[in-house]
Predict the 3D structure of the following.
Amino acid sequence: MTKIFADNILEGKVAFVTGGGTGITGGIARAFAEHGAKVAITSRKIENLKAMKQKIEDAGGECFAVAGDVRDFSDVQNAVARTVEHYGKIDIVVNGAAGNFLCAADELSPNGFGTVVDIDTKGTFNVCRATFDELKKSRGQILNISATLHYLATPMQIHVSAAKAGVDAITRNLSVEWGRHGIRVNGIAPGPIEDTEGMKRLLPEPLKEKITRKIPLGRFGRIADIENAALFLVSDAASYIDGVTLVVDGGNWLLGTSLS
Ligand code: HXC
């Protein structure tokens, strides 16, 4: 894929990316490394990080893989400490670890609801909280991966909708509270992105063509679309953008087709 941004826009930066082994956040980790950042990726299982670490290193980038469950604050603290030991600092945090499955509200158990809120919302807070001291030192920034599910209402997604609404609240609150430390906090709300775990779980293949016809830009998003939005938001080009969740969905949510 043709590069849009200069190769060195993240030169000298260290990024800490949760859920950085696969999918959208894996793509973001790889793209950051391709643009000069040293990248720490974290996920519950170290096996899930190996392929991405290899891919980044094969392309000449630097990657440190560290296991950790974002739901567990001491796990997060450990992953952060090991990253700082390894790279000396953290400039950019990407909260991408997420959980999802389709389930009707009247069939969803409280633990099912709570599990997704714990991963997405509490996990995002845990990581922001655990990296605050480093971000304060680096005058760094946070990028939270959200969704558009909760802008209207998405059946079978009450848990993720509630969780991502919480993530958006975290983005706004922290931008206000931590702006004075020079920390920018923004988010991205991806629309329907092909070839992701989320889309495999949410969208049966036969429905894909029907949905494609409804998307205003006439196509599903690609992971590269989110990578480019992420590169822009963490770059100096966005240095006065704070507290924003940028929708990257081909105009989809405005039609209320509800899939994102
Ligand atoms: C109903 C379910 C369920 C399902 C799990 N649960 N799967 N309920 N339908 N399909 C319930 C369980 O019954 C249990 O409740 C509770 O959730 C916890 O389940 P566990 O399997 O013990 O949890 P855990 O092993 O921690 O796994 C978490 C997970 C899992 C979220 C359930 O799917 C996961 O690890 N996902 C990570 C990968 C992932 O989902 N990536 C996609 C992200 S995409 P009980 O009551 O029985 O104890 C994404 C995009 C969102 O986030 C935006 C939209 C596009």
Summary: The pocket of hexanoyl-coenzyme A is lined by residues 98-101, 103, 108-109, 111-112, 115-116, 147, 149, 160, 197-198, 202, 260 (CB under 6 Å). The chain has one domain: 14-255.
